[in-house]
């Protein structure tokens, strides 16, 4: 069946690819206990099952974008100049604070 699907789709998926996808989805499901996923996969060590918890590139990029969006929403109040510096001098050197 997998060979026929690969032929129709022009893909080259293997049974291992399907197992990996299922493991990834199970491991990231908050409704499943990771030790149950370990049992289903037949892993001797939980650390092997934990490999499927790693976030993918798209998830990481989305998390970073969300972080910067949250930071942009926070009203930033410029810190006062350190002792010995005058605000006017810093403004002349670096431009006015925004």
Can you offer a commentary on this structure?
The chain is mainly α. Helices cover 60% and strands 0% of the residues. The chain has six helices and no strands. The chain is elongated. It starts with a helix and ends with a helix. The mean pLDDT is 87.
| Number of β-strand runs | 0
Q: What is the H/E string?
A: HHHHHH
Strand content: under 5%
Low-confidence stretches: none
N/C terminus separation? 62 Å
Shape: elongated
> How many strands, what sense, and barrel or not for the largest sheet?
none
Helix content: 55-70%
Give the helix tally: 6
C-alpha-based Rg, rounded: 25 Å
Mean pLDDT: 87
Q: Decide which structural class fits the backbone.
A: mainly alpha
How are the SSEs placed, and which strands pair?
Elements: H1 2-9, H2 15-27, H3 34-41, H4 46-50, H5 57-73, H6 87-94
Could you write a compact summary of the structure shown?
This protein is mainly alpha-helical. It is built from six helices and no strands. Helix content is 60%, strand content 0%.
Observed structural traits:
about 100 residues, mainly alpha
């Amino acid at each position: 069946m997998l060979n026929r699907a690969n032929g129709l789709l022009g893909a080259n998926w293997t049974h291992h690819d399907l197992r990996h996808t299922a493991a990834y989805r199970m491991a990231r499901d908050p409704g499943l206990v990771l030790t149950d996923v370990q049992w289903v996969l037949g892993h001797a060590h939980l650390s092997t099952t934990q490999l499927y918890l790693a976030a993918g590139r798209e998830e990481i990029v989305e998390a970073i974008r969300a972080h910067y969006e949250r930071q942009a929403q926070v009203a930033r109040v410029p810190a006062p100049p350190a002792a010995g510096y005058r605000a006017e001098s810093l403004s002349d050197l670096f431009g006015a604070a925004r």
